[in-house]
Amino acid sequence: SHDAASLxxxxxxxxxxIIPYSNTHHTATSHSRIDHCLVxxxxxxxxxxxxxxxxxxxxxxxxxxxxxxxxRLPPR
Length: 76
Description:
Blueprint: H1 2-13, E1 17-18, E2 25-26, E3 31-32, E4 38-39, E5 45-51, E6 61-66
Antiparallel strand pairs: 1-4, 2-3, 5-6
Protein name: Endonuclease/exonuclease/phosphatase domain-containing protein
Organism: Solenopsis invicta
């Protein structure tokens, strides 16, 4: 679809990677992939999960565990 191609083009242009999930939005008549996680480096994503939560406005819960460190500034 045009939307999928636009997302892939955006990611390619900005050197981003799409975390692979299956369809994330479900209705009685359709299933679509409208929720996404993007990372700048695939090695940052340690794991990713998708959980069906039908009571949560037809969306699945998606999560990703990242491997990244944050340098904190010392207190003033």
